[in-house]
Amino acid sequence: MSDANVIPGAYSSRFAAGFGWYVRRLLRRSFHAVRLARGSGEILSAAADHEGPLILCMSHSSWWDPLVGVLLGRTYFPQRSACAPMDREQLRKFAFFRRLGLFGIEPDDPASLPAMKSYVAARFAAEPRPTLYLTPQGRFVDPRAPIELRPGAAAVASATPGCRVLAVAFEYAFWLDQRPEVFIRCEAVPSGESGSTASWQRGMISAMRRNGSALSELVIARDPSAFTILIGGGGRINPFYDAWLRLRGRSVSIDSARVNTPPPSRKAAA
């Protein structure tokens, strides 16, 4: 399909696998851990087995969001093809992203919405189990701000009978390590009764807000048992001091239970 408003992607499963290896290595070096809220892995695994199109609606507070999306894709959807929109001028500059399935549009051009719908419909028709990655907020937004969405994700979902949609929330915070951590939570988005663009839009906003709030509560609680670890998570102070502690049979990890225990009340202290 040719459309002057779209720079087409050129997805390569081999290139995607290699880039996925690079992303995992980059995240491991940059973050202490990547944590997935319990229950989210089952949601992702079920979505991976879905025979029709899959749409991931991801929150967008950081430059890292698309790369964390790549990690999820390579971890849970390695057999599914991928596509995602990107600013057309940026894609011209970084053309290798086309091999990850990225296609270029002009986000602020009204003609881009029908062009994107047409392009995605063609990709969905050409692939047996395609996946579309979207950040429907359309810009960087603080995770504490109310979620508002552009209409593209809902428009694509309403035009795709049998699609499955997931809300994916990301947060980045410091817990006990000198490096920050990535936190992820997923929730299925109900299709609504009519399957119209308006009903999908309401459902996506509701699910993304609910999912983001639930993730924030988990991050604030600082309970590692509420998450499974995708990457990292081991204690580390200094490579030489860590080795010395291990030789002495001592843990290099900070005791999160002691650090996170709230102080006693004045009455209890008395």
Written account of the structure:
The radius of gyration is 21 Å and the shape is globular. The protein has 270 residues and is α/β, with parallel strands linked by helices. It has helices at 13-30, 40-48, 65-76, 88-93, 112-126, 152-158, 197-221, 239-247, 256-260, 266-269; strands spanning 33-37, 54-58, 81-87, 102-105, 130-134, 164-173, 181-188, 227-232. It has two domains: 13-231, Glycerol-3-phosphate (1)-acyltransferase, CATH 3.40.1130; 238-269, no CATH class.
Keywords for this entry:
270 residues, Glycerol-3-phosphate (1)-acyltransferase, 8 strands
Summed up, the helix count is: 10
The helix/strand order is HEHEHEHEHEHEEHEHHH
The proportion of residues in beta strands is 15-25%
Return the CATH architecture of the largest domain: 3-Layer(aba) Sandwich
> CATH class of the largest domain, anyone?
Alpha Beta
Quaternary state reads: single chain
| Content-based structural category | alpha/beta
Which ranges are low-confidence, i.e. pLDDT below 50, for 5 or more consecutive residues? none
What integer value in Å does the Rg equal? 21 Å
**Fraction of helical residues:** 40-55%
Biggest sheet layout: 8 strands, mixed
Distance between the termini: 75 Å
And the CATH topology of the largest domain?
A: Glycerol-3-phosphate (1)-acyltransferase
Question: What does the overall shape look like?
Answer: globular
Q: What value does the average pLDDT take?
A: 89
Got a strand count? 8
The CATH homologous superfamily of the largest domain corresponds to: Glycerol-3-phosphate (1)-acyltransferase
**Strand order, largest beta sheet:** 4-3-5-2-6-7-1-8
The number of domains is 2
